[in-house]
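COMPLEX REQUEST
Ligand: 2'-monophosphoadenosine-5'-diphosphate
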Amino acid sequence: MTDRYAVVGNPISHSKSPLIHAAFARQTGQDLIYETLLAPLDGFAECVDEFRSAGGKGLNVTVPFKVEAWQLATRLSERARLAQAVNTLHFGESAEIFGDNTDGAGLVRDIVHNLGCPLEGKKILLMGAGGAARGVLLPLLEKNPASVFIVNRTDAKAVELQAQFAAYGGVEAGSYDTLPGRSFDAVINATSSGLADELPPLPPGLFAAGSLAYDMMYGRQTPFMAFAREQGAQVVADGLGMLVEQAAESFLLWRGVRPDTQPVMAMLRG
Ligand code: ATR
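STATUS: Structure written out below.
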């Protein structure tokens, strides 16, 4: 029987997830369909319930419902518990709703595996302290970097994140004013600044030799990416690889098979 999956959000029509999962299913010979689901802003839980009652097996969750999905799950992976956000729901035979967050694993896999930039022993700068930053912190720390410095416009939020994640590795936090004179091997933009075509207040000299600049946004060249190129970052990437890799992690959770992401990335870039 064909199993049903979907991505739920509001808005949702722009989502590339159906294309990505259809490609994964073709490639791995899995019998499934994957659709988009537009949930009313005040009707997320009902929408999930209806989908599940109709036989749905799992959902990806996107803006603005990741925190609600985290609250709805009856069991959480550790990475989802710490992220306080869920992007993947899995419905088993029991009444349980399993919630996972594959965003951070997707980011790390894109950086390490696809871009060939190891993170072990490296100095990482993570820009932003909202949901996107929180969602990737544990998987980043699990790669044993020398340190992760969280920088945020509202520095109190960065300090709060530091306190919550200090038990998992070397985490520092501060404001943009504290950056001059420091350099990093990987600078990851988890702010929403690119949406407004803005550049966070970064000083020159931030990129160490051979460093990576990664913008978690995709579909546009952001001011951060342009700045990184000007400043001599060796590898500059947008978040398309992360999008495909987080999808592959969800697919693996649901189906027990890891798809090959390379042809799907090539298709999307083409
Ligand atoms: P998301 O879920 O995408 O993380 P969010 O929780 O609203 O969204 O967080 C947005 C993040 O981008 C915040 O860290 C925000 O900084 P503040 O906490 O100071 O608001 C950051 N951000 C947004 N626009 C920015 C800009 N132009 N420069 C620097 N940081 C910016």
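REMARKS: The domain at 104-241 is CATH 3.40.50.720 (Rossmann fold). The two ends are 33 Å apart (CA to CA).
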